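Deliverable D5.2: sample structural annotation.
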Amino acid sequence: MTTTVESVHPAESVHAAFERCAAATPDAVAISSGDTRVGYAELDARANRLAHHLRALGVGVESPVGICAERSVETVVALLAILKAGGHYVALDPRQPRERHATLVKEAGPELILTQERLLPQVSGLAGTVVLDDPELDRGVLSGLPATALGAEVRPGHAAYVAYTSGSTGAPKGACVPHRAVLRLVQDNNFLTAGPDDAFLMFAPLAFDASTLEIWAPLLNGARLAILPPGEPSLDELADAVVQEGVTVLWLTAGLFHQMAEGPVARLTTVRQLLAGGDVLSPHHINATFAALPGIRVVNGYGPTENTTFTCCHIMDEPVGDGPVPIGLPVTGTTVHVLDERLREVPDGATGELYAGGAGVARGYVGRPDLTADRFLPDPHATEPGARMYRTGDLVRRRADGVVEFLGRIDNQVKVRGFRIEPGEIETALVAQAGVKDACVVVHTHPESGKRLVAFFVADDSVLPAALREAVAAALPPYMVPSLLARVDALPLTRNGKVDRAALTAREIRERPETNADFRAPGTALERELAVLWAGLMGLDEVGVDDDFFELGGHSLMVTRIVAHVAERHGVELRPRDLYLSSTVAELAEVIEGSAG
């Protein structure tokens, strides 16, 4: 059986839908950021002026425009301006290395990159640049341009943005998402209500497709977009922002949602709809949220980037049982097929692969016709000529009531902390390093730290894990850098001669990994406490006081646990950046002692 939920939104562009809201409520607040308030009419005018400037720089219909910027008002203005000029945006994550930006720019082909002053070195020379926070841009250029719309002839099938995901061949792949797909996600849908009384938090990086929902759902429904300041907030700082901004709709990755449910979830009193996804949700944490916030709605959102953020959603208004949390029903404008290897529908209750069709399907991968043909197939069930469906690679089963349950991946693709990752891309980066002969990347699950990437590698004795990790970090985004790197004499093989990933996944690693520092035992009670805490979070037998937190495999979700522990035990309010700046046990102990003194 094929499940379809019809879309009722009118066919138009993203910016035309925004302009309709701006005309209807010109004085309503569109964006809030601290003490700053920007109304719909003002946002529309600012975006129009920048769009005229972009047009003068050569941006037209179907033009790719890079954007490397942190969360800010000018970033949102820039996104609107790109669309109004007829172009589509290609987000370059500021946290990723310049080498990664160069790869994406070469493939996506933007001749212009919009950025901010402090990020200019990351993109300078890759294409022409416009510095969004340059005061002279406003005073010397934009102030003299028209505040009226360009009227670019943009149709629903034209590109709105390109979002890059990890690629199994060792190269990232960019899904080209059209305007109709964004409209299908945020207008008149069946999983989310949004109106003038709502406020959404802009929290996800632009390069993460959750930002599509966060930004366009409020701005295309007359609601308010509340911008979280740049940086990685602690759980308490995130809760502070939610309360101060009066956020009513909040999206969190599954890992962060679980941590919030164990932490300050009771402070999220303004939130009426909490969406979580990117990985399997825990019933325990869902029920803890309901206990802390009676009346809240929790939504389990599932979907690949290639089908525009969400394909299915499971809405929960009350506590759930102990079984797996379903991914739910198709979202509006989406068709879900559960098919066997020969693309035949399987009966309800049987396992099959999920294929997604409808208005949310991306146009394909930029510059990758072979991969596009492999993953985007003709949809035999569609009535629209030329319609395609996306092969997700996810195993599911559909219940008799139409609700879909996620069972796992067909291939080796994994999700870690909300990011979809192809281990092959990481393995390619590892083997590219001098002296490395072979590598395999798997996911280990630890009760404290959750899922983490572990790289097993075969290499010459001259290759040190710490140096190898640094080299890979220069080529890959932070979320793709393995938490642990373990040297092995040879990778285990199955009877068929393939790498035995299951054996590596089951192999426990408790020994302290090689780092740039020799082992030094803790010398004070506080150092011993922190060393034991770090070892517990990372599943290691011991940690030296000079070992770098991130070389040991630490990540941002662990940082929030450490910050909470220090606050509870010592009454010292650390910020996440304190651990980034003081990343060894010895350095952090000095910070705590100095603050307590």
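Annotation notes: The chain is about 30% helix and 25% strand. The CA atoms of residues 358 and 384 lie 9 Å apart.
The annotation will be released with the project's public dataset once the embargo ends.
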